Amino acid sequence: MVFFLHVVPMMAALGLQPHAPREYRSLRMGYLEFLLLMLWWIYLYLFAVTPWQYVSVNSELYSYSYNSLDMVEKLVFVVGAGVLWIRTWGPWKKIYAHLFGAAFLYLLGSQMINRAIDVEDLHYHTGSVYDIPLVASMAWFVGLGLMARKVSAASEPVAKGPRRQGIWPARLAMLAILSIPALALWAMFLNEAPPRVGEYRLIISLCAMLVLGAIVFLKQHLLDQELLGLLHASEESVENLKSLQKQLVHSEKMAALGQLVAGAAHEINNPLTAILGYSDMLTTQGGSPAEARGLAQKIHSQGRRIKTLVSDLLSFAKQSPAEKVQLDVNSIVTKAVQLRELNLGNGNIRIDMRVDPGLPGIRGDANQLLQVCFHIVGNALDALQEAGEGVLVVRTRREGPNIVLEFADTGPGLAEPSRIFDPFYTTKPLGKGTGLGLSACYGIVQEHGGQISAWNRPEGGATFRIELPIAQNAPAAVSAH
Question: What is the strand order of the sheet 402-409 is part of?
Fold first, then answer.
């Protein structure tokens, strides 16, 4: 049986198809397919050969069955090598051509020796002329191995239709399993062998179905796990794609709006400067009536509001690159908190700083990043003042290649978390917000190669998270002044 099975590993090698690209190898015959193939050939040997050796001894039927099955086995390998020879090109076509030739010569030599042994008149003996084709085929196999050892699968052309090639080994394994009950039915109803042989073959078939069925069940289980993994990876990819699409849409909206706002703001600035100047003149003129001076003061106040709005618009639309230097994140966050604490009058509101003192530095513009932190801290404190009390927790830490800043408050939360970075979106009363602050923060963080996100906490309040990449091969961070 061992000598009979020596071709099976070469069949498995053909099923693995070393010429094919690596990305498709997960679909090809693996260890389970090889185990199925080997057990199926063992079953065929036990089914066709061993009955005449142990159950109902018959040397002629034994020799005939062995030689016939051995020829079928070698013929299957020859056909497989021939199919791959036709379907490939380049160096691999040459390799499979040699493999086909060596396998065919080996099959021919084996049959010549078997024929010479069966026919006494041919006088077969070891070292006779009948051994020449067999020895030549073995030498051919050795030469083929030496020739093919330097061929790289990654650098050579692949077979035609590579996406379909990984299917046929699995289909052959399915056909092999389906052949077992067919052979059992043939042994029971169509074969004229002795009853003991039929019973033996039926028992062998049932045992083979149990063993091979268990392997198929294991293979299906592993395949289900792989499919579930692919499904989860696909779902994650879809979610990442949706997130990326939202970011792209938002970035395109920001870029278009920035160009529009930049032009409009400059045009508004010129007449606005004149309005502010004339209103100052009316306010300071002593001969003007008190009512006129009051109206001039209101004009001046509204003009200053417009001036602030235009300044915010110009800051939002600014497209010049930031001057980036080595920075200490903790210094920037601490300064932003200190600036906002100056206006913090409510004793029921406090800020809890939880910064990691050992953080590496980042590269960025100190003023822009200070503006981001100052604005987020200000929004959080405004929300807490509306609630009358609460805590703002500011954290800094390292996560992999990024520095993470988190601002979590216990306020009322965000009304629409998906829209807070949209330009001109604000929930503040008229005159207290332009809706450009968080949009500007979004653009600054993106310009620094980071990410900013916000969500409502399950226990109440909102969280803003900023991720900034750590500077690579940079000196120690310096404080932002």
Answer: 349-355, 390-399, 402-409, 462-469, 451-456
Q: Is 395 helix (H, G, I), strand (E, B) or coil?
A: strand
For 72, the domain range is: 4-193
In a domain, 203, yes or no: no
306/331 same-domain check: no
- Domain membership flag for residue 109: yes
- In this prediction the pTM is 0.50
d(CA 356, CA 353): 10
Cβ-count burial 280-290 (b if 16+ within 10 Å, e if not): eebbeeeeeee
Looking at the fold, whether 448 and 356 belong to one and the same domain comes out as yes
Q: pLDDT tens digits for the chain (481 residues)? A: 888 888 888 888 887 777 766 544 454 456 777 888 889 999 999 999 999 999 999 988 998 899 899 999 999 999 989 988 998 888 888 889 999 999 999 999 888 888 888 777 777 778 888 889 989 999 999 998 888 877 654 444 444 444 444 566 667 777 888 889 999 888 888 888 888 998 999 999 999 999 988 888 888 887 788 788 888 888 888 887 777 777 666 666 666 666 676 677 767 777 877 787 777 777 776 666 777 777 777 787 777 777 766 765 565 555 445 567 888 899 989 888 887 776 666 668 888 999 888 888 898 888 788 888 988 998 888 888 888 888 999 999 999 889 999 999 988 888 888 778 777 667 665 545 556 678 888 888 988 889 999 999 888 889 999 999 998 764 444 444 4
Domain boundary among the residues 134, 166, 193 is at: 193
* Of residues 431, 432, 436, the one with CA closest to residue 421: 436
Is the same domain home to 346 and 407? Answer: yes
* Boundary (domain end) residue, out of 317, 349, 364: 317
C-alpha Rg value of the chain to the nearest Å: 41
DSSP string, 300-361: HHHHHHHHHHHHHHHHHH--SPP--EEE-HHHHHHHHHHHHHTT---TTEEEEEEE-TTPPP
- Considering the domain architecture, whether residues 283 and 340 belong to the same structural domain is answered as no
Indicate whether 358 and 246 sit together in one domain: no
Domain co-membership, 92 together with 160: yes
Query: In terms of domains, do 332 and 306 share one?
Result: no
Nearest to 254 by CA among 443, 43, 48: 443
Q: Quote the Cα angle for 419-420-421, to 5°.
A: 95
225: in domain: no
